[in-house]
């Protein structure tokens, strides 16, 4: 999640998975077993809600905000059986939206590469990156672009990997910005508990390499454009998430030790970038802790220096100075959930200088995934300073986007949808990714 939670105006119903031959009550029992403490998403509401007040109040009282709400509806939180009473104590109400966890299909056999019905672990993604590169030498180059915090400490950890996919000709897929082909970068799971995001990158890579020369749209894209994928931007975090195969651990931040316990450990990598970094995003144990300073985290450093190497800088740093018209490239970071296409800026409600062109690409994605197109804070006085999408636009002039995958209610709601939801997410978002990738040639008309 980045900024907003658009829950939609539909009535709140508790939808339980109904597999063939199973009764609703058997399913309810299975859901209860998967959520022994009543782990669920709630929509917290405030009578006569004041703009910008509710999210701040909840955060100050230690709630885990799943999103920062639609001003008309409320704020989504991750909670359990105690949540309604905690909300009542603050004069608020908490509506049950959907269970946090879903029973894993009994036919699913987890191996070292997968968990929770089929999602890929960090190691699974690394094996996949290597396999794709070795099976398609004319289309794929794999690069190491940085290290996770644990790796920098000699505590295991991971490299951060980026995979470049194009019809490779001389000079392609190098870590330079002098190559002629425009570059589209897709990054996922910087917030490790947002499961759908990394899985869609895995599917996107397979879709491209398996359909070059067969599908005209894929072929045209790879003939003209470098597609870079960073499937797992926070691999240490994903190790924690996947450490429980039937009930993923809700680790959002990296694993930088800071005296906090459990999933409160770490820095929010999507608040750590050095463009409008804001120390007031939360204390050490908060889910939005921005770190000790801008770019304090090795993951952020690796990702930013990679992006600086492959993209030209076409924008003066002043917030109100536009990027030049000859800018090429698009950057897309994928989060969950809320069904949103978000364009810059996210640190302020002021329009970015390239506003209409930036919005046009978000609209093109929205025409496919049907998610709402937004920027700024959605009227809540709750911003996301130090996020990667603002950083790449603010620092380099490359249009940066966030897609928030998935709904707030039903079986596919929340951070940990059942794996079968990937099919509907893919159907909606593959064409949205392609629209963003095609815009890389000339994003500013
Ligand atoms: Zn997120």
From TrEMBL:
<dbReference type="GO" id="GO:0008270">
    <property type="term" value="F:zinc ion binding"/>
</dbReference>
<feature type="active site" description="Proton donor/acceptor">
    <location>
        <position position="404"/>
    </location>
</feature>
<keyword id="KW-0732">Signal</keyword>
<keyword id="KW-0479">Metal-binding</keyword>
<keyword id="KW-0862">Zinc</keyword>
<dbReference type="Pfam" id="PF00246">
    <property type="entry name" value="Peptidase_M14"/>
</dbReference>
<feature type="region of interest" description="Disordered">
    <location>
        <begin position="281"/>
        <end position="300"/>
    </location>
</feature>
<dbReference type="GO" id="GO:0006508">
    <property type="term" value="P:proteolysis"/>
</dbReference>
<protein>
    <recommendedName>
        <fullName>Zinc carboxypeptidase</fullName>
        <ecNumber>3.4.17.18</ecNumber>
    </recommendedName>
</protein>
<dbReference type="GO" id="GO:0004181">
    <property type="term" value="F:metallocarboxypeptidase activity"/>
</dbReference>
<feature type="domain" description="Peptidase M14">
    <location>
        <begin position="118"/>
        <end position="440"/>
    </location>
</feature>
<keyword id="KW-0121">Carboxypeptidase</keyword>
<keyword id="KW-0645">Protease</keyword>
<keyword id="KW-0482">Metalloprotease</keyword>
<dbReference type="InterPro" id="IPR057247">
    <property type="entry name" value="CARBOXYPEPT_ZN_2"/>
</dbReference>
<keyword id="KW-0378">Hydrolase</keyword>
<feature type="signal peptide">
    <location>
        <begin position="1"/>
        <end position="26"/>
    </location>
</feature>
<dbReference type="InterPro" id="IPR000834">
    <property type="entry name" value="Peptidase_M14"/>
</dbReference>
<dbReference type="GO" id="GO:0005615">
    <property type="term" value="C:extracellular space"/>
</dbReference>
<comment type="similarity">
    <text>Belongs to the peptidase M14 family.</text>
</comment>
<comment type="function">
    <text>Carboxypeptidase that possesses the specificities of both mammalian Cpase A and B. Thus shows broad substrate specificity, being able to cleave Cbz-Gly-Leu, Cbz-Gly-Val, Cbz-Gly-Phe, Cbz-Gly-Lys and Bz-Gly-Arg in vitro.</text>
</comment>
